[in-house]
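--- STAGE predict ---
source: upstream dedup step, 1 unique chain passed
mode: sequence only
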Amino acid sequence: MPIPILSVLSGLHKSSFLDRDVTPGVAYVYRVRSLLRIGQEVIPGEISSTVSVTARDNTPPEAPTSVRAVAISGGAKIFWIGAKDTDVAGYRVYRRKKDEVFQQVGVVKAPYTFFEDMTAVAGTAYWYVVSSYDTAEPANESAKSQEAFLRP
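--- STAGE serialize ---
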């Protein structure tokens, strides 16, 4: 397949180029040629060696919203409004007790937006947060949601 030629004459004084029209997972091939302008004449230099790069998705999805936790028989049920991004693969649920750090307690595949924590002990106060992750390899994880508090 022929390689399209991209001419950036307006950028004659630049030594870099940012290609914003790429698709994650697709390999792109680039070569560079310098141009020397003398008056109205443009003199081309040698063409560089080929450089190949594969575009990567580094953008995490948005965080889930409206996280709620309710006590149920034998544990807790956590539910939320899912991220609206089109490449959300699932959600990670984290829990902590007072003065502790969050630990992951569950993973839920999209499109589901609830999790039953059957390891929650009745009478214990818990805080929960949820993050979303996408289909990229490796997956990008969103920021954590606002905390939901489960009263003892």
